Amino acid sequence: EKGGYDYFMLKEIAEQPKAVADTLLGRIDAAGSLTLDEVRISASELREVDKVVIVACGTAFHAGLIAKYAIEHWTRIPCEVELASEFRYRDPILDQQTLVIAISQSGETMDTLMALRHAREQGARVLAICNTNGSTIPRESDAVLYTHAGPEVAVASTKAFLTQLVACYLVALYLGQVRGTKWGDEIHAVIRDLSQISGEVERVLETMEPVRALARSLAHKNTVLFLGRHVGYPVALEGALKLKELAYMHAEGFAAGELKHGPIALIEDDLPVVVVVPSPRGRSVLHDKIVSNIQEIRARGARTIVIAEEGDEAVVPYADHLIWIPATPTLLQPLVATVPLQVFACELATARGNEVDQPRNLAKSVTVE
Ligand code: F6R
Prior knowledge:
Layout lengths: L7 H7 L1 H9 L18 H6 L2 E6 L1 H18 L3 E5 H4 L10 E7 L5 H12 L3 E6 L5 H4 L3 E4 L12 H21 L4 H22 L3 H9 L5 E6 L3 H16 L2 E6 L16 E5 L7 H16 L3 E7 L11 E5 L8 H18 L18
Parallel strand pairs: 1-2, 1-3, 3-4, 4-5, 6-7, 6-8, 8-9, 9-10
Helix pairs in contact: 2-8, 2-9, 4-8, 4-11, 8-9, 9-13, 10-13, 11-13
Bound molecules: fructose -6-phosphate.
The site of fructose -6-phosphate (F6R) has 15 residues, from helix 4 and helix 11.
């Protein structure tokens, strides 16, 4: 049932605050520490992990890219992220000390399943992050952390993605907690912020009307580019993927630092470019660099659509369109920055007359390699 919405996708976008809150439920104790006993890998086993490898496809892969920043920062364990479809074909280096994390909404994606089977054959331990109870991927894994997004019907993944991010943060923070790192205080503070984040997602949803209007005004365009840095880079990739699959438009995400190494040649008059700006408080060097990127592309004619933290006055002079998002800790920003991009893609698809819940050529669960 669509619950009064025109499309499942709209309903699922709206359900994100609840999906995020549900995924945290019961996993933070009264003292503000994480309890992930359900992950049946013992603390002593987790202390021995010397490498994390994440395998996933599509949107789940983007969640994995973001997880890498969180895992390496909070745990200092090296982390690789790989497209599941590429993984086993390159003879990856794995052993008992490797923790492989397989992220999958459906739990049935064949590429991801084959990757985790390969990892287990090499002796690695596999933790699944999955939204579907009892599906194949968690059944074949050593342990599972379920995302509690509820059933996702629209082909384009939205609420599952946000809950995959939450689950990834939980794993990263938990690994940091059991291993003890110099970030102990920060880990505690972030757990507190995470428990508030569903309200921030709700606030973003309440301010989406201008994003819809902007999307409708761009319905005749052929190309949209997305730029980001740090965790904003995978957010840019996700924004581009949503636009491809729903609006059937040419959309590409770039790391903003790569602009000058090629992509800036694409900039032409009135080309829409969405830029995800990191917080000016956190890694402020990155913030300033991206503000320069916005200036550079605007000077070459781009129509800049800037997603920035509330109160970030530095971006105002260079933004043709501004989308404000609430302040969050740097690593958590994707939870709020992705939402406008989902709304943008959904509205553009509608404006172009596309079938939002069932984009052409796509299936919800890809059970072939
Ligand atoms: C994009 C999308 C796909 C899936 C990918 C993995 O909106 O839905 O890219 O994310 O096919 O699917 P799961 O998570 O079920 O393994």
